[in-house]
Amino acid sequence: MNTSIQEVVRATGLTSRALRHYDAIGLLPATSTAPGGVRLYNDAALARLQRILLLRDPGLGLAEIRRALENETDDVEALSHHVALLRDERERLDRRIRSVKLTITQLTEGEALMPQTSFDGFNHTEYREEVEQRWGADAYQAGADWWRRLGAAGQQAHRDEDAAIVTTLAELVSASAHPTSPEAQALVTRHRRWIAASWSGGAPDDAYLGLVEMYVADARFAAHYGGQAHAEFLLAAVRESLGR
């Protein structure tokens, strides 16, 4: 079954100009053309477009998206990974929705607001006690102060970079890349820079290695990075980078 470019425009909100550009750069070639030159897309092209849109959300550029698609050719496997990431995001948003609805109810009925329920899903300090036990109260406070200084735009940019790193890690694992590969080492550099941004004094070798080792040891962190295999790949790449 073929879908016309006009139908794709209506379904996705993309412009026909954008789709023609995707075609011109080889990112999403039209499957065929109908009489009159109307571009048509088959099911495989539509699945590819869905992946493009999913990769675009974290802020990846078109060149990065194209490389990701070339490295990970199994649509079902790639989309399954995206489903896992979307479920995590949905869980966070569901918590926020419940919190906001409860606040509306409490305000309407004149009830007192409870911080522990009003901000469920919003609190980036929920692991404060654990952070302080591992690295000390000063480390937690420095991180919290840095986060506030970023402001809304800076905080979103930091989240976007995190999402892009997780996506790239998944692409490398799916492509059976080796931790010593230039691509894997480039990811380590990018990840370490992202970590160092929030650490006073940067990310010293031992501290950075210890953090990534925790990703493997703690299932919560492994899940954030796409699962145990992904966390182990990142750790192997970091060890290679540090010569450990």
Could you explain the architecture of this structure?
The structure is a single chain. The chain is mainly α. It is 71% helix and 3% strand. The chain has helices spanning 5-12, 16-24, 43-56, 62-71, 75-108, 115-118, 128-135, 137-174, 182-196, 205-217, 219-224, 228-242; strands at 3-4, 32-33, 39-41. It has a three-stranded antiparallel sheet with strand order 1-3-2. A hairpin with a 5-residue loop joins strand 2 (32-33) and strand 3. The protein starts with a strand and ends with a helix. The relative contact order is 0.08. Residues 123-127 have low confidence and may be disordered.
Class by helix and strand content? mainly alpha
Query: Per DSSP, what share of the residues sits in E-state strands of 2 or more residues?
Result: under 5%
Rg of Cα set: 22 Å
Shape: globular
Number of strands: 3
The end-to-end distance, rounded to whole angstroms, is 53 Å
SSE topology string: EHHEEHHHHHHHHHH
Helical proportion, percent range = over 70%
Q: How are strands sequenced across the largest beta sheet? A: 1-3-2
For the largest beta-sheet, the strand count, sense and barrel status come to: 3 strands, antiparallel
Number of helical segments with 4 or more residues? 12
Low-confidence stretches: 123-127
Overall mean pLDDT: 80
